Amino acid sequence: MSQLQCFQFPYGHDNYGVLVHDADSGQTACIDAGDAQAAMDALKQQGWSLTHLLITHHHGDHTAGLAAIKTATNCEVIGPEPVSTPIEGIDRFMADGGEFEFAGRLVRAIHTPGHTTDMINYHFPDDALLFTGDTLFSMGCGRLFEGDAAMMLNSVNKLKILPPETLVYCAHEYTATNARFALDVDPDNRALQQRAQDVTRLRQNNEPTVPTTLRMELDTNPFLRTDDAALRQSLGMSDADEIAVFAELRERRNQY
Ligand code: ZN
Ligand code: FE
Fold this sequence. Notes:
single chain, 256 residues, six-stranded mixed sheet, 9 helices
């Protein structure tokens, strides 16, 4: 089994799509479909033919190009079971723990409701790859449009237990703002201070801060650190439960 190749491409204001390619089988998956032209351009640039389209959730910046990509490539479209807003054009529905085969390996669906109730993240365990949509961002998490803090905390806890070396691809370049916010609430975190510097340098050079690793996020992402004593103390919430800490962080980030 050879290593999967990932090709990340920007679209829209601050979105990222990713192509995942297996040279042996020739299979290629695209994560999300916000912009058909951007996805088709990326495929052409790499010389890859699309076989699978993996949708994370129903928002337009992840689905607007679905029909056009499906028509152009005849790919199989995999996506979440309809919860709040059904997605047109899904061939195969994924619930929590659902599995499918891609290029001779298993891909596992992890249901991570909170940003939306339908959100599915895609884990490639053999390749240590994770596609988190708008659930987990670098040093941040998605806004709670359809779920609450308890739901989202439960969702990110499902991601926290994956191997720390897992490469994490999220769907937006929100990292610089997330880093400033994270430093506000977790000022003495050395790993975070270093990461924030690296992010500043990357963005000055117009380079992506994504992918990140789960280990990096465990060390720097306040939304994964609701059990951290220093962070809780800086919020004045040393004795609060984790749901309350998560809710406070999300509320402060909304106002930030
Ligand atoms: Zn979204
Ligand atoms: Fe989005």
